[in-house]
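As a warm-up, study this chain.
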Amino acid sequence: MKGRNHMYDGRDMTELSMMSKTEWQDNELAFFHYSLQQIMDYLNIEGRSFHNEIITEIEKRGGLRSGVH
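Now compare it with the structure written out below.
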């Protein structure tokens, strides 16, 4: 995503955090995975666990399609 201007137009983290990751759309998984990956060094254990749940869901879906950000 470096050098690209991507705007996220979806549900916010407050709404998504109350839902199962299986209910998230691919673009939501991709956006929050990328965002959390950028701040991984600053996340506490709960944040890292949340990020791992996102990664697990992405893997269950067979990865992310190219261009989904």
